[in-house]
C-alpha cells in the first residue's frame, strides 16, 4: 500500500514590513527631520538668494568667508604639494576668492578647489544625520568662522561672525543638540554646491575674480566655460546624492539612540 504523502508546504513569503527594512530605507526619524531632497533644495535656494542679492547677501558674509576660505585653502595645499609657489591670496565675500600660483601642476591645483569643497560639504551633510558628528563638526565650524577675522575690517561682518558663533553655541542646548544637525546640513549644502554660487557670481553678477570653471576654459581653450561648469555641477550633485545615501545607510538611528550616542561626547540637555 503506497504511503500517503502531504503536499510540500511553500516557505513563508517575506512580509512587507521585513522587505521594507532595506539598508537604504530612511528610518522614521530620518524622514521626520530634514533628510529629504526637497529640504536640501530649499536650503540651496535660500543660500543662492542670500549669496547674490544685494544688501541681503551681507547677512551671510561670515558663512561665505568660511566657504570661500576652505575652497582657496584646498588650492593652496595642492599648489604647495605639487611644487607651486603662492604669489597672492584673496578671500572676499563680495569679489570672491583667488589664489595666484606660480609653478605646480595647474590641472590638479584648479581641481582641488571644487573637489575640496565637495568633500568638506559632504562631511557636514553626514553631520546632519547624527548629533555626535554634528557636535564634532561644530568645533571645525566654530574655529573656521573666527579665522577670517584676522583679515576682516568690516564691522558688520565682525558682528555677524559673533552672532553665528552664538547660534552655534546655543544650538548645543536645544533638544540635546539636535539643532546642530540643521546648522551642519546648511553649511554642507553651501560648501558642496559651491560651483553653483561660483559660476553664478561670474556669469550673472560679474564678480572681479573669475570662477574656476572660467579658469579651466583658459587652461583648456577647446572646452568652453559652460561645459566645465556643467561638468562640475553634475559632479557636485552626484556627490550630494552619494553623501545623502551614505548618511541614511550609516546613521539609521532613532532620536533616542542618537541622543544616547551623543551623550557620550560633551552631553547637554
TrEMBL record:
Pfam family, one: Peptidase_M50B
InterPro entries according to UniProt: Peptidase_M50B-like
Keywords linked to the UniProt accession: Membrane, Transmembrane, Transmembrane helix
Domain of life: Eukaryota
Transmembrane residue ranges: 31-53, 65-87, 107-127, 132-150, 156-173, 180-200, 229-251
PANTHER family linked to this entry: OS02G0221600 PROTEIN (PTHR33979), PEPTIDASE M50B-LIKE-DOMAIN-CONTAINING PROTEIN (PTHR33979:SF2)
Protein name per UniProt: Peptidase M50B-like-domain-containing protein
Lineage: Eukaryota, Fungi, Dikarya, Basidiomycota, Agaricomycotina
